[in-house]
Each structure stands twice: as C-alpha cells, then as structure tokens.
Design goal:
The complex is a heterodimer.
Chain A: H1 3-31, H2 34-37, H3 47-50, H4 53-56, H5 60-80, H6 86-103, H7 111-126, H8 131-158, H9 160-163, H10 166-172, H11 176-179, H12 185-201, H13 204-207, H14 209-230, H15 233-240, H16 243-250, H17 253-261
Helix pairs in contact in A: 1-5, 1-7, 1-15, 1-16, 5-6, 6-7, 7-8, 8-12, 8-16, 8-17, 10-12, 14-15, 14-16
Chain B: H1 2-29, H2 35-42, H3 57-60, E1 63-71, E2 81-82, H4 99-118, H5 129-138, E3 146-155, E4 158-164, E5 168-169
Antiparallel strand pairs in B: 1-2, 1-3, 3-4, 3-5
Classes of the chains: A mainly alpha, B alpha+beta.
Chain lengths: 262, 171
C-alpha cells in the first residue's frame, strides 16, 4: 500500500461515515423538527459558542448539514479524480465544529477521532508531496486508534461486570436483535473476553506486522457486528477510517519513526 | 508563504501530533488535572474520555419509562402510553439508523434528570429539560391539542416519579 492509497482509503471511509451520519440527522429531523428548530437558551451555552449561534440554530444548522453532506460527497469524487480535497475536507470540519453544540447530544461520541482524522487529512491534502507530513499523520492515526482501544479495554478488564460477561449481556439486551436471540452464558463470557483482548492488544499489530491483519479483521468484525445487530454504525466508519493508517504503519513502524523524528 | 508553512509543519507536526496523543492519553486514562483545562480541551468534541460500552453506575442502576397522554379538542384525555424508543431490527440499520440518534439523546436527557433528582435539585434546571419536552411534543398526536408527559425511574420493582408535566400545548 502506498501513502497515496492509504490516504485515499482514509478519506473515502471517513466521508462515507459523514454522509451516512448527515443523512441520518436529516431524516430524524424530518420526523422530529424540534431537533433543529428548538432554540437553545443562552444560559445553557458557553460564551465561546454563542457567537456562532447562526450555525446551530435554524436555518443555519440545516444549511450546514447539507453543506457537510455535499462536501463529503465532493471529497470522495475528488479522490477518485486524483485531485486535492483539502478545501472540501476543511469545509466538512468547519461544519462539524460550528454545528457541534446542537448535534453533540445526538450521537457525538466518535467526534474526537473524527476531528483527528479530518485534521490529518486536511494537512496531508494541502501538502501531498511531503512524505514527512504524510507519515506523521499516518503514525498519529495508528497510535491514536490504539490508545482509544487500549483505554476502553482497560476500563472493561477492570469492570467485574465485563469480566463476568454481565455487562455484555446487559448491553446486548437493549437491542431488539439480541433480545430475541440471547447469547448463551458461556458464549457471552467468551465474547466479552474476546472484546477485551482485542481492545487491549490492538497496538501489538504495530509492533508485530504479521499480527496486524488479524487485528484489522477482528476490528472489522467487532464494529461490523455492532453496526448490523445494534445499528451503531457511526463508530464503524470512523474507526475503519484509521485502519489504512494502522496497516500502513504496521508494515514498517520502526523505519518510519526514524524518518519522522530523526 | 505555502512553502514556509510546509517547512514549519514538516518540523512541528510530529511533535504536535505527539502532544495530541499524550493529551489523549491523559484524558483516556486519568481524571486528574484542572477541570477547567479538561473542559476547554474537550470543547468542540476534540477530546473525551473514551468509555465505549463500559457500564455506568447511573445507567446500570435502573431503567427509565417515559409516558404521555393526550388531551383532545373536546376535553377528553387518552390513556397513558409508553414512549417507545426501541424499533424492530432489520439489517438496514447497518446502513442507516436515524432512530439511534433520538435514543441517544433521550437517554442522556433522562440521566441528567435523574442526577438532578438525586441531588434534590429542580429538574427543569437541566439544560435538556425544554429540549426534551419539545421533542416528545413533536411525536404524532392524531388531532390532540395538549400532551402531558411523565418520566419514571424504575429500580428493583420500585417506580420513582422524576417529574410529571402539566398538559402542554401541541404545535
């Protein structure tokens, strides 16, 4: 995989997620117009965000949601035509930031990773010929994804409920798919520990390149299962967008770190 | 200008990204440090403490029931109905699942009400209160003019009334 291919993969995967999320936001708003029409009281808003109220109140919030959707589509199109997508990606990031005070309550937990991926993509797209910049970004994304997985794995392994499989059972029971197809006790414990191991040891693939593909397949299955059975599909694209960086770095981590830092 | 910027970024980016990763570690693994700085850095969705599917005490210590009843134009009232946030499963939810956004918000809002209730603080002081009510009032009402909303916390067969509104006008 070349640097260009890695970045193209990251851009396409992230933008699919942004398109999917934007369509979902627009559909839920059509059903419940208050989601965008409700005017948030100043007293509940930080003074740092009040100045851009125009962006998260109607009609701005609606316009920026469409802008984000179109800019993400345009970014994919630009990648396929081999052109730089830095302006459209910057537009996506600006829309996400300006409208965040409203949307943060409606599934915003993948936002920090999305911000990191967008920042890396924008900088790379502005200077695509610079290998050092490109490698810095890929290294950062691979490490950032590993930090997130490791920290959540650590919290899970510390939780008695997770170790016994009770947390996974409780979590799955909230979703109709699992409610009517409950996992047997032993399978739940096995699945809980598999999740913990996957999250805790994801970073190992960066040190042992031969293991990287195994972790990527496990990650794909993990996020894919969550997406298909529980509908948690926003995580799927955001996390998957870091996988090309993880794969690229895993295939030569030591050499790259020398190139970047020395 | 661009060449100068490229030169600066080329040298500074590894350290900037390294610093970003370190701050992410600080957020992810600890609760220490000045709250003000954590809030500032967390603003705009740049950083957070990741806790994917790790059970929170508040979430695992019970569940919630959101109920409503409508008043018709002739003054009669309907029976109480449960607000159903759950939807039937279909493979399509992997592609598009708008409802999860609403569910996510409702859970956050009700958790905020529950926290205030526990602290003996007025629930309408929650930043979610008016927003939450406006969304529940948006739900289909088939000719009704007003709606009353009630939120309960259920724990070990005990039902605790978090709040019940007056009849509120439907738009």
């Amino acid at each position: 995989m070349s640097i260009i291919q890695a970045y193209a993969g990251i851009t396409i995967l992230l933008c699919i997620g942004i398109i999917q999320g934007s369509i979902a936001d627009l559909l839920i708003t059509k059903k419940y117009p208050s989601i965008t029409r409700f005017r948030m009281a100043d007293k509940h808003l930080s003074r740092y965000v009040r100045w851009h109220r125009f962006a998260f109140d109607m009609p701005g919030v609606f316009a920026l949601k469409w802008t984000s959707l179109i800019a993400a589509l345009a970014s994919i199109a630009l990648i396929f035509t081999g052109k730089s997508a830095w302006i459209t990606l910057l537009l996506v990031l600006a829309c996400q930031l300006l409208t965040f005070p409203r949307w943060r309550n409606f599934v915003g937990s993948d936002a920090p990773l999305q911000r990191a991926v967008l920042t890396v993509l924008i900088i790379y797209s502005a200077f695509p010929q610079n290998n050092r910049i490109a490698l810095s970004g890929l290294t950062f994304l691979a490490i950032y994804a590993s930090i997130i997985y490791f920290s959540t794995g650590l919290q899970k392994v510390r939780s008695t409920q997770w170790r016994k499989g009770e947390a996974l059972l409780g979590f799955t029971s909230k979703f109709p798919f699992w409610k009517y197809r409950p996992l047997p006790g032993q399978v739940t414990v096995f699945a809980a520990w598999t999740t913990i191991f996957f999250e805790l040891f994801f970073f190992i693939g960066l040190i042992f390149p031969d293991l990287a593909i195994g972790f990527l397949i496990a990650g794909l299955l993990f996020h894919g299962l969550l997406s298909v059975t529980a509908g948690i599909n926003h995580f799927f694209w955001t996390f998957l967008s870091t996988y090309p960086a993880y794969w690229f770095i895993s295939q030569g981590a030591i050499d790259f770190s020398r190139l970047i830092f020395f | 200008m661009m060449a100068a910027l490229e030169n600066i970024l080329e040298n500074a980016l590894p350290w900037l990204f390294g610093l970003w990763a370190l701050v992410a570690v600080w957020f992810a693994f600890t609760n220490v440090g000045p709250k003000r700085i954590r809030v500032l850095l967390g603003r705009g969705g740049w950083l957070q403490k990741w806790n994917m599917f790790v059970p929170e005490v508040a979430k695992s210590s019970g569940y919630f029931q959101i109920r409503y009843r409508d008043q018709m134009s002739d003054g009669s009232t309907t029976d109480w109905s449960d607000l159903k946030l759950e939807q039937n499963w279909s493979p399509g939810i992997a592609l598009i699942n708008p409802e999860i956004r609403l569910q996510s918000y409702m859970i956050q809002a009700v958790l905020s009400f529950s926290r205030l209730h526990r602290l003996n603080k007025p629930i309408p002081s929650s930043r979610h209160y008016d927003f939450f009510l406006s969304i529940v009032l948006d739900m289909q009402h088939g000719g009704a003019t007003h709606r009353q909303i009630s939120v309960f916390k259920i724990r070990e067969k005990e039902k605790e009334d978090l709040f019940t509104t007056k009849f509120l006008p439907l738009s």
